[in-house]
Amino acid sequence: MEFTYHNAHNRGKTNLGWLDSKHSFSFGQYFNPQLTNFGLLRVLNDDLVAPSMGFGKHPHQDMEIISIPLSGSLRHRDDMDNETIIKEGEIQVMSAGTGIEHSEFNNSKTEAVNFLQLWIFPKQKKLKPRYDQQSISKKIKNEWQQILSPHPNDSGVWIHQQAWINLGEFTTATSIDYSCHVEANGVYFFILEGEAEIATQQLGKRDAIGIWAFESAQIKVQSNTKILAIEVPMQ
Is residue 60 annotated as involved in ligand binding? Predict the structure, then answer.
């Protein structure tokens, strides 16, 4: 097993007043040559957006873009005629493909919205753009819940890549295993809340560890812990 540990306090930072963003990997004006990606996971931003503020209309191309609100809600519009609200307990995916323009704004006039923004490289370029969003079950506890995969008929949303995202919400202390769907993949564990031990490393809120070249990893989880497991090809 090989691994890389990322302390939450060492993440890159962008603060524009209306936007307070933490970057797990190089993004925008933040550049760290040692932190440009984990395999095909290119971006993991932890964004806090002020009331009624947001990202105006802007383009993307050849990227799988995933948004997961942690609190609050976002108002989404794009040039494929999608206009919707995505809120806590949901996941959104956009396959930018040949090109898409969209905007994302905090839907509240009084409360900030906190959401995760992930970018994953697609398996090929110039694909047809697409949009989807789905609810995440609140009933599944103390086990992995798949919320993204490469398969349109599988659980959760899907993207054009051999990637999976699982969410684990643990109400009691436990141990749980994770094995990759594809042997050459790695998995980036991001602690949303609580504490866990992975690859002998103690992790707290917003800490992360990426592991690869392993058969099965055992995760020791404390009570009231939420973990995002992002499995991606390593090249």
Answer: yes
Residue 58 assigned as binding residue: yes
Pick the CATH number of 11-135 from 2.40.50.140, 2.60.120.10, 3.30.420.100, 3.20.20.70: 2.60.120.10
3-state SS of 115-172 is: EEEEEECCCCCCCCCEEEEEECCCCCCCCEEEEEECCCCCCCEECCCCCEEEEEEECC
CATH number of 144-233: 2.60.120.10
> Is 6 annotated as contributing to ligand binding?
no
Cβ atoms of residues 61 and 98 within 8 Å: yes
pLDDT tens column, 79-104: 999 999 999 999 999 999 999 999 99
Q: Is residue 54 within 8 Å of residue 74, measured between CB atoms?
A: yes
Q: Is 104 annotated as a binding residue?
A: yes
What is this structure's pTM?
0.97
